Amino acid sequence: MKRLHLLPLLFVSVFSSSAFAGWKCNASTTAGYPNECSRAGVQDTPDALISSFVSAVTALNTNVNRKDYKAGACTMNGSQNAICAYSWTSFGTVMNNSIGALKEAVVCPDTVEVRGPDSPIIKSGGKNYVSWKEDSVVNDICHNSCSYMASSVNRSNCYLASGSTSTGFCNFFVGINSASPTCAAESGYTSPAVGDPLDPIVDPGDGGDDGTDPNPGDGGNPGDGNNGGDGDSGFDGELSFTNPGSLNADSVLDSEVNAVHYQAFVHGMQVDLNHSGFGVAMEEFQQKISAANSGGTCPTADIAILGTIISFDAHCALFAGISPILSAVFLAAWSLLALRVFLSA
C-alpha cells in the first residue's frame, strides 16, 4: 500500500516541473547555435544560462584557434529578456560576442499537493484520526510562481508522523487560481510526505513475533510432529475439499438449438475442407486411384498338363476380395503423407 501512496507524489513531481519558469536562449540565438542552446537548457537566472552556454560552446568547439571561452555579464532588457556577453581568444586576441536570453512563460498545473501541519491524533472506535480540517487552510498558496486557492482544498492521505503514535498529518490538494494564476513569492507550500500508517494492520497469525507466547491451542495437533506440533501456526493440519462432481459435456448438445448449430459447424468444416486446395487435391488423388482400379485386368495363366488345361486365376479372386482393403490402407497412408508435406510447408 505504501507504493500506492507514492503515486500522488510522483504525479505532482512530474507536473510541478512544467511550472518552472526559467531562462533559455531566445529564438534568434537558438537558430544560430541550436546544439549549444540545447545543451545549455533552461536555467534559473540569465547568469546561470550564459555560464551553461559557454560550457556547451567549449565542449562543442572544433576550432583549435579559439580558446579560453569565458562568460560575461548579462544586461536585462525588461523583465522577460536579457543580453548576455561571452568572450574567447583567437591568436592572442580577445573576441567578444553575446546571446539573447528569454524567460519562458509559466505553465501551472491545475492542482498541486501540499503537506499539512502536524496535528494531534484522536482515537475513536479503535481507529486513529488526524485532528485537522480543510477549513484550517485560509491563505492562498504560491508555489513555482503559480497561485492556488485556499478555498479549493481537498484532503488527500493522512499518516502518523514517523515514529509517533500521538501526532499525524494530512496531505491535501489545492486548485489553480484561474483568475490570477501567477504569483511572485513562494508561500504556504510544503512538499507532500509519507509517514506511518494511521492504523497498521497486524497479522493475527504471526506466531508471537512480538516476543509473547502464542496461543498453545492454535497450532493443531501438538504432538505428532506433522500437523503443526509446536503451535506456531493457525493451520489445523488438515485440508477439507468437496468434490463438485463430474461435468457432463454432452449436455451442451441437449438443446435443440445447440444441436443445430453443432451440425452446421461440422457441415461448414466439411465444406471448407472440400473446397480447400488440400481437399481438392485429395479428391483428385482418390479419383485417380479409383480409375486405376477399374481400368486394369488381373493376369491369368493357362497350362496344359497331360491333355488337361489348368487355369491359374485363384489369385485374381483373392485380390478382388482384398483390393478394397488395400485401397483404403494405401489411400490413408498417402493421405497422411500428403498432409504431413502440406503442413510442413
From TrEMBL:
Q: Does the keyword Signal apply?
A: yes
Biased composition of type Low complexity is found at: 195-204
Signal sequence segment: 1-21
UniProt keyword terms in alphabetical order: Membrane, Signal, Transmembrane, Transmembrane helix
User: Residues annotated as region Disordered?
Assistant: 186-240
- Gly residues composition bias: which ranges? 217-234
Which residue ranges run through the membrane? 318-343
Protein name according to UniProt: Uncharacterized protein
State the organism named in the record: Pseudomonas prosekii
